[in-house]
Amino acid sequence: MANPHKRKGDGAEREAAELLSALLALTVRRKLGAGRTTSAGGDTGDLDGVPGHVIQVASWANVAAAARIKPAEASRQADHAGAPFAATLVRFRGGTWRVVLTPEQWAAYLRLILREGLQ
Fold first, then answer.
1. DSSP annotation of 95
2. Do the beta carbons of residue 109 and residue 99 sit within 8 Å?
């Protein structure tokens, strides 16, 4: 029988992929072997299909810890993947989702908006 934490995490990743697929009209999937180190030198996130992004998914009982820890991991994973953007989807009890960004991650989006003149 699989580790219950892994089972919970796998389910959250599937749920997050379905949510993003519906919101973005893209095909978003769990990465095959999510969490494994790649030839590029490190983990590259939990989900595939969001262009230019590394997406980390967290479904922790302690959502404050998830919001504090996982975005930094997503940034490292974006570096490994060569992706310009990183985001963390945190699942709260009851199925509510929030996207959590560090100030640096948020600033990357804002710099793009300013550069493109999308005010």
1. S
2. no
Per DSSP, helices labelled H in 36-102 are 63-81
pTM over cut 0.85: yes
- Distance from C-alpha of 117 to C-alpha of 102, rounded to nearest angstrom: 23
Burial of 14 (0-12, 13-18, 19+ CB in 10 A): middle
Q: For residues 77 and 50, give the distance between their C-alpha atoms in angstroms, rounded to a whole number.
A: 14
Tens of pLDDT, residues 23-52? 999 999 999 764 555 555 678 999 999 999
Give phi and psi for 14, each to the nearest 5.
Answer: -65, -45
Residue 32: helix, strand or coil by DSSP? coil
The CA distance from 86 to 25, in Å, is 19
Taking only the tens place, the pLDDT of each residue in 100-115 is 999 999 999 999 999 9
What Cα–Cα distance (Å) separates residue 39 from each residue in 31, 73, 102? 15, 18, 26
